[in-house]
Structures are given as structure tokens and as C-alpha cells.
Specification:
Number of strands: 33
Structural class: mainly beta
Helix content: under 10%
Largest sheet: 12 strands, mixed
Shape: globular
Radius of gyration: 19 Å
CATH topology: UDP N-Acetylglucosamine Acyltransferase, domain 1
Distance between the termini: 45 Å
Amino acid sequence: MPVSTSARIDSSADVAEGTVVGHFSVIGPDVQIGSECRIGHHIVIHAGTVVGDGVRIDDHAVLGKQPIRAARSATTSVSELPPAHIGNHSLIGTGAVLYAGCTIGEYVLVADYATVRERVEVGDETIVGRGVAIENDCSVGTRCKLETNAYICAYTTIGDDVFIAPGVLTSNDNFMGRTEERKKYFGGPTIHAGARLGVGSVLLPGTDVPPEAVVAAGAVLTRDAEAGKIHQGVPARAVREVPPNQLLKGEE
């Protein structure tokens, strides 16, 4: 196991054969790292984190971080969270931050400077693009593509095979931070299997994007979309059917 002499690995950590650990990396207590991993330079892997086989973690990434809570935070808990789990053959980019309590599937890419918060599940073969933020208590399905700088608010649900273009924004608070009553109504969008969101589109709290629906670039979805239809405008309205050759079943 090639390990830099400048790395610090706790005596209780378990690092399997064939794994390489770079300069100035810190691996905390009870961490488990599988075989044939590549741990870059200046990596911090916090206590209890579980990393599967064949995982690559690039420089300055942080895994298993416990969240910090501002005095006025509405959604962040102060309770200790279980360890983060990173599936086999996943790729974690430079400067990415994965919080304790998140679960990353197999063959997932979490690109440079992306953030995956606590109690988030990301399915197998999903791409979390550069600078994407997935807030707490979200679920992301398999084979999704979340492109650069998309913002996924807390309590969002994303199904399988969803495409989210760069700069998409979601929201979960119709009260915009005013009154304690808002906490009873927190809810992000639900984006079903095969749905697609165009560049810079905006989804308001609690909206539903059914299977194979499209929200076009720059559109603002203020109410539930319609399955298999393209939605445009501010506010977004269904304008036509998605062409049959654009449906997932049309790929066969």
C-alpha cells in the first residue's frame, strides 16, 4: 500500500491493499477504504467514512464532514450523523465536499467543487457536475445527469434518467424565510423518471415534473407540469408534446 510519509492515517482505519494515499492526506478513525483506490493530495476523510473498491478521490476533497448549523438555520440538524458511504468505482473530483450521512452509489461521478449534503442518496452511474449543490434530505436516482452549477434544494426528489441542465434552480420555501409557519410546508420539487430541465429553468416549491416532461430553458415552473409535454415561458405552460423519438423508449 503506497502511502506518502506526510499522510496521517489513524491506527483504527482500514485501508485495503493496492490503495495509494497522496501527500498530506488525513484519514480519520474507523475509516474503511477498499482496494485499488487512488486518494489524492490534501484529502480529508472523516471518522467512519466507508469508501468502496476502485474509488478515485482527487486533491483537496473532503468526505464525511459533519454539518455545521447556523443559529437561524431552518433545515440543518445538530445531531451526529452516520458515516458517509461511497460506492465502488466512483470518482470524486477536486475540492468536492461529501457530508456525513450521504450515500453515493457505484460508478458515480461527483465532479470538481460539487457538494453533496447530509441524508442525500445518489444512485448508480449518476453524474453530479462541476459546482452542483445537492442540499440535505434529497434523493437522486440512477443514470441522472446534473450539469454544472445546478442547485438542488433540500427535500427534492429526482427519479431515474433525469437530465438537469446547467444553472437550474429549485426552491422549497414559498414564504421566503418569513414566519415559523413556513417550516410546516417545506418541500422541494419532485422530478420523475426521464424528465428534463433546460438551462436556467426554475422550479418553485412543491412542483411536480412527471415522467418525460420537459421544462425549457429559462422557464419558471409555478405549478405541476404535464407528463410527456414541453413547457415554456414565465410562468411555464405546456406548449406541445415531446417528439416520440425524444422519449426514453424511443432510444431503442
